Inverse folding.
């Protein structure tokens, strides 16, 4: 539905809502969350919230959580800003760092919410193609002259990573700020969180929704110099991390690190087996360093419908630049992966 010009800002007129096709399905492999469950100490912290302390506000800027995340990331707490999911951190960063009318460049395909977060902040999204080897194209990104350049590595939905050389070149030449989204860093061989210290024009964004298994609690954060972090914090505003979320996150960071590391190892092994099974079916999944695999399949929407009838949900992408139609499948426990491969095999047989 489109609001009349008297009600809506012009920039909002064509902004879509996130598609909320709610999936109730035996095996939901559509959102890249931790399919092994929630970390045990975080679960215990949530149970203990029954003490009723939530009649009060949480801390305005989640200082205790900043300290714990700073220790995890190897920086001082003044280098951390948190938010209601990394979605909130990304949107706040765009609002803080670009004037309305300026542009944000990204390599397509990438995180589907980025052009939306740009537009709801009056910023113009500009996409440039990835290279033939699934790397970012630093020169093409720089040539846009964009105020903000967004890079996701490992990239959603491809699972591929930006090379160190391309990232270094990008940061040396970027005309404005670089946002590096590392939502899937825990699953990758390499992180570039070091770039936050290399330049005060870099913000590295992370989340507790994926490896840490806390998506429903909405906890994201970014690492950058105190100067850039302070601007994002102003834009974000107070009280964005709920008391429940902060307590669970603190417990997970203090007591569940071994559990998380074990689940990350499980996810990586599962992802590699999944890719191998897909190749056995004659498919050509992209090389992934995340907890999911993107596999090009013409007519992916019809294939996904057939999989749904067999109780398995995967995320459909149609007409991705230089990929075409594809399914993105989250890596999970072996029993789920067997269901997924059976469902895909059945779906392909009737396509
Ligand atoms: C899942 C995801 C996020 C959002 O995570 P939240 O912290 O749950 O908001 C951000 N970026 C990318 C690339 C993602 O895939």
């Amino acid at each position: 539905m489109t609001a009349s010009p008297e009600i809506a800002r012009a920039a909002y007129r064509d902004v879509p809502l996130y598609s909320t096709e709610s999936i109730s399905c035996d095996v939901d492999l559509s959102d890249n969350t931790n399919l092994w469950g929630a970390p045990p100490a975080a679960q215990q912290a949530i149970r203990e919230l029954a003490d009723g302390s939530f009649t009060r506000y949480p801390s305005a800027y989640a200082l205790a959580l900043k300290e714990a995340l700073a220790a995890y990331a190897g920086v001082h707490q003044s280098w951390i800003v948190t938010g209601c999911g990394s979605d909130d951190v990304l949107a706040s960063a765009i609002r803080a760092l670009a004037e309305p009318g300026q542009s944000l460049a990204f390599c397509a395909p990438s995180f589907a919410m980025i052009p939306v977060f740009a537009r709801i902040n009056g910023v113009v999204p500009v996409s440039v193609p990835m290279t033939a080897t699934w790397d970012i194209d630093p020169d093409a990104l720089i040539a846009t002259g964009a105020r903000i350049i967004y890079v996701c590595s490992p990239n959603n939905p491809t699972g591929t990573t930006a090379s160190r050389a391309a990232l270094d070149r990008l940061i040396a030449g970027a005309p404005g700020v670089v946002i590096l989204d590392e939502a899937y860093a825990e699953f990758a061989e390499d992180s570039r969180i070091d770039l936050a210290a290399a330049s005060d024009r870099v913000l590295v964004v992370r989340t507790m929704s994926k490896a840490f298994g806390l998506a429903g609690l909405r906890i994201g954060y970014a690492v950058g110099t105190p100067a850039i972090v302070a601007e994002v914090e102003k834009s974000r505003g107070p009280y964005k991390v709920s008391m429940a979320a902060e307590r669970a996150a603190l417990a997970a960071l203090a007591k569940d690190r071994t559990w998380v590391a074990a689940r990350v190892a499980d996810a990586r092994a599962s992802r590699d087996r999944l890719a191998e099974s897909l190749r056995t079916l004659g498919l050509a999944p992209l090389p992934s360093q995340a907890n999911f695999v993107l596999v090009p399949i013409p007519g992916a929407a019809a294939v996904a419908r057939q999989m749904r009838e067999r109780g398995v949900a995967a995320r459909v992408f149609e007409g991705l630049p230089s990929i075409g139609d594809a399914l993105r499948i989250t890596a999970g426990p072996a029993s789920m992966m067997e269901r997924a491969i059976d469902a895909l095999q059945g779906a392909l047989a009737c396509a």
Q: What stands out?
A: The domain at 21-37+258-350 is CATH 3.90.1150.10 (Aspartate Aminotransferase, domain 1). Residues 63 and 275 are 41 Å apart (CA to CA). The chain has a mean pLDDT of 95.
